[in-house]
C-alpha cells in the first residue's frame, strides 16, 4: 500500500472524533422559520409540525378481494348456493345485504351492512343466477376494517422527518393538502487560495483548478441546502476577514475550504477569531486534522482543510451531521454498516482513519470492504473510486476477515434521513 507520508504525528492536543462531533452537534440549532407548502412542492423538505389524521383510513369496512359478500349464517356447508342480490363496485353506496343472498363485490368497495365475510371469487363458481361457494370463509375473512390503517386523531407524521414520496402519500390519504416545513438552510460557501482557477480557464505555473468549490456546493445542494456561493477569496487577512463577515450576514452557516492550517498564507483561523470565536480546531482523525468550528458573530462557521479528500471526509463526518440538525432533522447522525475486511492494514495511525473504500459482495453473499491503495489526502480520484468510508480505529491492526465499520456514500451524500 502506497503512502505519501509514513509519519504518524503525535495526537497530544487533538480532540477525539466523538468528542469533536458532540461539541458541534451541541451547538446546532434548527432554523426557526417555517413555511406551508402544497404536497407537490414538499418533497425533500423537513417537516416542522406534526400531521394528524382527521379521518379514519379506511373510512369504512371494505373488501380486500374481488368476490362475494355473504352472511356466514347463510352458508351451511361447502357447495351452498346463494342468489346475487346486488353488485358493489368501488365507490358505490351499497344497500344492506338481504338475508339468504350474496353481493358481488370488488376490491376496495364498501362491505354492505349485514355481511360478515367476503369469499374470494377463486373459491366460487357461477351456476345460472346463483353462486356456488366451494370453500367457506372464516368470520371477517377478506374484510379491511374501518380505521385499520389510521385512526382519526392519531399522529401520522412527526416533526423532523425528511419528506419522501411515501410521507406525501400518507398525508394525502387523510386529506391533508399542505405541510408545514422548515425554511431551507442557507449555507454560504467560500474558498481560500490564490492558486485556484475555475475549470475552463488556462492554468499558469503553480495554479490548480478549484475542485473543492464544486465538491462542497454539490454536497450541500444534494442535502437540500440553499447555497450562497461567494467564490474565491484572496490570500490576505483583510480579504478573508471581509469575505467571512459578508458571508455571515447572508447565511445561516458559513463553510470555508482551505486556509485553516497554521501557515503564513492561512488566514481563515485568525480572521474567524477576529470576528468571533473559534471553539474547535484540531481533531484526531486522518485525513482532515485541521477542522475549524466556531462562530462569526452569532453565525456558525465550519472550516475544512484545502486538500480535496480531507475536505470531503471532514465535511461528511462533521459538517453534514451539523447541517442536518440545523435543518431540523431528528435523525442527523451518519449511519454505519457492519462488514468484513477484505484487506490487511498492518500500519495503523495514532489517529482514527476514515479511508476510502468499496463495499462489495463476496461469493457467499457476505458484505466485504476493500480499500484504495493510497492514503494521500490529495488523491481526489480515490473518492470517485470509492462507495464509502471504512473506519479504522486508532493504533489497531486490521487483518482480512476482521469486522469493520463502513459508512456508505449512499447515506453520506444526499438527503439522508
What is shown here, in short?
This protein is an alpha/beta fold. The protein contains 8 helices and 26 strands.
What top-tier CATH class of the largest domain fits best? Alpha Beta
User: Which sequence of strands runs across the widest sheet?
Assistant: 7-4-6-5-9-8
Number of helices: 8
- Low-pLDDT windows of residues: 1-10
Number of domains: 4
Classify the beta-strand content into a percent band. Answer: 25-35%
Q: Quickly give the CATH architecture of the largest domain.
A: 3-Layer(aba) Sandwich
CATH topology call of the largest domain = Molybdenum Cofactor Biosythetic Enzyme, Chain A
Question: Which descriptors would you attach to this protein?
Answer:
417 residues, alpha/beta, Molybdopterin biosynthesis moea protein, domain 2, Molybdopterin biosynthesis moeA protein, domain 3, six-stranded mixed beta sheet, 8 helices, 20% helix, elongated
Word description of this protein:
Mean pLDDT is 92; it is low at 1-10. This protein has 8 helices and 26 strands. 20% of the residues lie in helices and 30% in strands. The protein is α/β, with parallel strands linked by helices.
Question: Topology of this structure?
Answer:
Elements: H1 17-26, E1 34-38, E2 51-52, E3 62-63, E4 67-70, E5 80-88, E6 102-105, E7 117-120, E8 124-127, E9 130-133, E10 143-144, E11 155-157, H2 165-173, E12 178-182, E13 186-192, E14 196-197, E15 208-209, H3 211-223, E16 226-233, H4 237-250, E17 253-257, H5 268-275, E18 276-282, E19 285-286, E20 290-296, E21 299-304, H6 308-326, E22 337-341, E23 352-361, E24 367-371, H7 381-385, E25 388-392, E26 403-408, H8 409-412
Parallel strand pairs: 5-6, 13-16, 13-17, 14-15, 17-21, 19-23, 22-24
Antiparallel strand pairs: 1-12, 2-11, 3-10, 4-6, 4-7, 5-9, 8-9, 18-20, 20-21, 22-26, 23-24, 23-25, 25-26
Helix pairs in contact: 1-6, 3-6, 4-5
Amino acid at each position: 500500500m502506497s503512502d505519501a507520508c509514513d509519519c504518524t504525528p503525535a495526537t497530544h492536543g487533538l480532540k477525539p472524533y466523538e468528542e469533536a462531533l458532540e461539541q458541534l452537534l451541541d451547538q446546532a440549532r434548527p432554523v426557526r422559520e417555517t413555511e406551508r407548502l402544497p404536497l407537490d412542492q414538499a418533497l425533500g423538505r423537513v417537516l416542522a409540525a406534526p400531521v394528524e389524521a382527521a379521518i379514519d383510513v379506511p373510512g369504512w369496512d371494505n373488501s380486500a378481494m374481488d368476490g362475494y359478500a355473504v352472511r356466514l349464517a347463510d352458508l351451511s356447508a361447502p357447495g351452498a348456493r346463494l342468489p346475487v342480490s346486488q353488485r358493489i363496485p368501488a365507490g358505490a353506496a351499497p344497500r344492506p345485504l338481504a338475508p339468504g343472498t350474496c353481493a358481488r363485490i370488488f376490491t376496495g368497495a364498501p362491505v354492505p351492512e349485514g355481511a360478515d365475510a367476503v369469499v374470494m371469487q377463486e373459491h366460487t363458481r357461477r351456476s345460472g343466477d346463483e353462486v356456488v361457494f366451494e370453500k367457506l370463509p372464516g368470520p371477517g375473512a377478506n374484510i379491511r376494517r374501518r380505521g385499520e390503517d389510521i385512526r382519526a386523531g392519531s399522529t401520522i407524521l412527526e416533526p423532523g422527518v425528511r419528506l419522501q414520496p411515501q410521507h406525501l402519500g400518507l398525508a394525502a390519504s387523510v386529506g391533508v393538502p399542505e405541510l408545514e416545513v422548515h425554511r431551507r438552510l442557507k449555507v454560504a460557501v467560500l474558498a481560500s487560495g490564490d492558486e485556484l482557477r475555475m475549470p475552463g480557464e488556462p492554468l499558469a505555473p503553480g495554479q490548480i483548478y478549484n475542485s473543492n468549490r464544486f465538491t462542497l456546493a454539490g454536497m450541500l445542494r444534494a442535502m437540500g441546502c440553499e447555497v450562497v456561493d461567494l467564490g474565491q477569496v484572496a490570500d490576505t487577512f483583510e480579504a478573508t476577514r471581509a469575505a467571512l463577515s459578508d458571508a455571515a450576514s447572508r447565511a445561516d452557516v458559513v463553510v470555508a475550504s482551505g486556509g485553516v492550517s497554521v501557515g503564513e498564507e492561512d488566514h481563515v483561523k485568525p480572521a474567524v477569531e477576529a470576528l468571533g470565536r473559534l471553539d474547535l480546531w484540531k481533531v484526531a482523525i486522518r485525513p482532515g486534522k485541521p477542522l475549524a468550528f466556531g462562530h462569526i458573530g452569532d453565525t456558525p462557521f465550519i472550516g475544512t482543510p484545502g486538500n480535496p479528500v480531507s475536505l470531503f471526509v471532514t465535511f461528511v463526518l462533521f459538517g453534514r451531521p451539523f447541517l442536518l440538525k440545523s435543518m431540523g432533522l431528528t435523525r442527523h447522525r451518519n449511519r454505519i454498516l457492519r462488514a468484513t475486511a477484505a484487506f490487511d492494514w498492518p500500519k495503523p495511525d495514532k489517529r482514527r482513519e476514515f479511508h476510502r473504500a468499496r463495499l462489495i459482495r463476496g461469493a457467499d453473499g457476505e458484505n466485504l470492504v476493500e480499500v484504495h491503495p493510497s492514503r494521500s489526502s490529495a488523491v481526489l480520484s480515490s473518492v470517485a473510486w470509492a462507495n464509502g468510508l471504512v473506519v479504522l480505529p486508532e493504533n489497531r491492526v486490521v487483518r482480512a476477515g476482521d469486522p469493520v465499520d463502513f459508512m456508505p456514500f449512499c447515506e453520506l451524500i444526499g438527503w439522508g434521513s
